[in-house]
Amino acid sequence: MSVLALHAMITEACFGDSEAAWGGDLAAYLAKHGVDPEDAEAILASPRRLGLYRHLVRHNVVHVVGVMLERTRARLDVCVPGELDRAVGRFLAEHGPRTPHLRDVPSEFLAWASPRWRADARIPAWLVDYAELELVDFTIGVAPRPATPPPLADVKANRALVFGDPRVIVHLEWAVHLVPAEDPRAVPEKRPVDLLVYRDAKHCTRYLDLSPLAAVILARLFEGLPLATALKVACESSGVALDDSVLGGAARLLADLGERGVLLGARE
Amino acid sequence: MSERSVSTAGAQKSVNGVGLGLRWDFVDELLATKPHVDFLEISPENYMGRGGYYDEALERARELWPIVTHGLTMSLGGTDPLREDYLADVRRFLDRVESPWHSDHLCFSTFGGVVLHDLLPIPFKKEEVARVADRIKRAQDAIGRPMAIENVSSYMHPGKREMSEAEFIARVCEAADCGLMLDVNNAYVNATNFGFDVDEWMRTVPLERVVQMHVAGHDWVSDGSWKASDVAPTDPKEREEMLIVDTHGSDCCDDVLALLERTLARTGPVPVLLERDQAIPPLDELLREVAKVKAIWTRATARAA
After folding, report:
1. Which strands sit side by side in the sheet containing B242-245, from one edge to the other?
2. Is a pLDDT exceeding 60 seen at residue A164?
3. pLDDT recorded at residue B7
4. What is the DSSP string of B87-109?
5. Collapsing DSSP states into helix, strand and coil, what is residue B51?
6. Interatomic CA distance for residues B294 and B292, integer angstroms
7. Contact residues, chain B, for A8 at CB < 8 Å
8. ∠ CA(A130), CA(A133), CA(A136), 5° rounding?
9. Which whole number is the average pLDDT over B244-256?
10. What whole-number distance in Å separates Cα of residue B209 and Cα of residue B170?
11. Tag placement on chain B: N or C end, fewer CB within 10 Å?
12. Alpha carbons A140 and A181: distance in angstroms, whole number
């Protein structure tokens, strides 16, 4: 029990809501955590050192979130100065990192913060879209190396297509990808956006703005449907006639994806 | 644990001499200039489940230098169960880079499912020896490699000491039958902050179990405000108000290098790794420090022989 109590006490001292909770009356704080009196006595001999651990531990997490959401921080500071750091503080106190990879902490943080920011009237409605896109830039850039593709054949209507990894279709309510990065006061246009985000051969994250129908077709193709079936299903669900215009657009999209190295070929 | 220069199964690359911790700040220049460094050390957590640019850079580095791995979040002193998914990922990664051993820290970094992403101190209690040793043995089995535990810098002892840090390390290593990743700077930092004799500390830890050593720089900070000072305090009263923090943010100080030399003279040729994580200087400057450590390594190990 004594070691559990010590670990619980140190964890809360590092990630807990406020330093004041233990900084004011450390003896009471240790007693509250059930720390054995003889252990408490030793800790009380260096009462400020818990503060150093709080400082060091929080620095690591706050720093990585700040680095990976740097542009989001600038936009938050326009409307609610200091909000990112305060939100990280609330995240640490209420939830805390669960991943053993420090690089994944910002994603955990954003998953926690997004609903709270969406519900906060002080924060622009587009902010979460902006933050998610800023993180996707990193996560696609470092996503695991792709598996070896299966044997490839020519693209034909009755074949499922093979795409390179990593890639993802991101759905946004705001055109946050078009606002200038250096202007934190720029307000994005409110319109649905479907972005194909992928990593190119030089390991750079790239974006392709898709039409709504192209996004649905591509999503069905990513699911593994044969090309003709994907077109049919996508057009039906979108209420669009599968005519020459759609076929021509799909052909141009696939050619473009081939040039970008996203479309590799078809399954045999 | 007596054979310290271990050959990797696939690449037959021997790990010894003086290596450098691979950091993204200089990986491009390192790969372009291919300087002489005896080996590189990496943290699996920075590469596992990751592709892209740095993953490719690691593959290129593997062609040029032997790689050893040093983990950050195994939480060997923790009370949460060891994470099986994490250990399986580590094992796959070690197989890939052919690390001859794996080290992690004698500390806790998880509690209640929360990962603190830092190295928190564990109490030096009798009942902890067997508990921590058991976790090390299970981790070692899970990753399929010999493990070495690193002595960490600490700034408080979390509770009543039932033995010294050196004695605790010795008992844990013995009970787990594991190696010791001897961090010379951490020993110096703790000796300075807690006021014990570091040479006595070195006589107590099991030097025959050392598979690798670390050296690094540190910084003095004021106790309470935690503001860093550019210079070490000289006045005893001023020193009372300060402590050393293991930042890996400066060059190794002369005292640490002297301690390294005295220790190498006793261990013989053990691989030594220079760590630098903050205020990383230009690569040529870092390589000059590696060369300085290598000169010490050569001198000390010749004496040991």
Report:
1. B228-229, B219-222, B242-245
2. yes
3. 38
4. HHHHHHHHHHHT-S-EEEESSEE
5. coil
6. 5
7. 111-112
8. 155
9. 90
10. 9
11. C
12. 19
Nearest CA in chain A to B54: A142
pTM: predicted TM-score of the whole model, two decimal places: 0.91
Q: What is the DSSP letter of B282?
A: P
Contacts of A12 (CB under 8 A, 6+ apart): A21, A22, A33
Strands in A167-174's sheet, in edge-to-edge order, are: A167-174, A190-199, A205-210
Rounded CA-CA distance A94/B144 in Å is 36
Q: Which residues pair with B7 in a beta bridge?
A: B14
Size of interface A-B (CB pairs under 8 A): 134
Q: Decide: helix, strand or coil at residue B241.
A: coil
Q: Which amino acid is at B73?
A: T
Question: What six digits make up the tokens of A163?
Answer: 């795409």
pLDDT of amino acid B4: 46
Quickly count: other Cβ atoms within 10 Å of residue B55's Cβ. Answer: 17
User: What are the pLDDT digits (tens) for A208-242?
Assistant: 999 999 999 999 999 999 999 999 999 999 999 99
Chain B, nearest residue to A23 by Cα: B224
B170 three-state secondary structure: helix
CA quadruple B177, B178, B184, B187: dihedral, nearest 10 = -60
- A-chain residues near B128 (CB < 8 A): 3
Please state, in angstroms and rounded to a whole number, the distance separating the CA atoms of residues A240 and A246. 9
d(CA A149, CA A154) in angstroms, rounded, equals 14
Q: What is the pLDDT of residue A1?
A: 53
Q: B236 is written with which tokens?
A: 């005893």
**pLDDT tens across A182-193, in order?**
999 999 999 999
Determine, for residues B73 and A100 on separate chains, whether the beta-carbon distance falls below 8 Å: yes
Contacts of B285 (CB under 8 A, 6+ apart): none
DSSP sequence for B3-38: --SPBPTTT--B--SEEEE--TTTHHHHHHH----S
Q: In the structure, how many helices (H) and strands (E) does chain B have?
A: 10, 13
Query: Per-residue b/e over A39-52, b at no fewer than 16 CB within 10 Å?
Result: bbebbeebeebbbb
Cβ contact A48–B224 (<8 Å): yes
- Regarding the domain delimited by B18-218+250-304, which CATH topology (the fold level of the hierarchy) does it fall under? TIM Barrel (3.20.20)
Nearest CA-CA partner of B267 in B20, B7, B5: B5
8 Å CB contact between A46 and A93: no
Average pLDDT over residues A76-97: 97
When scoring A1, A6, A205 by the number of chain B Cβ atoms within 10 A, the one with the most, hence best to mutate, is: A6
Contact flag A103-B50 (C-beta cutoff 8 Å): yes
- For tokens 């994005």, what's the residue? A188
Put simply, the answer to whether B116 touches A11 (Cβ < 8 Å) is yes
Residue B126: list chain A partners with CB under 8 A: none
Query: What's the pLDDT at B230?
Result: 75
B178 φ, ψ to 5°? -115, 175
At how many degrees (to 10) do helices A49-68 and A2-15 cross?
50
Give the percent of chain A with pLDDT over 70.
Answer: 98
pLDDT at B5 over 50: no
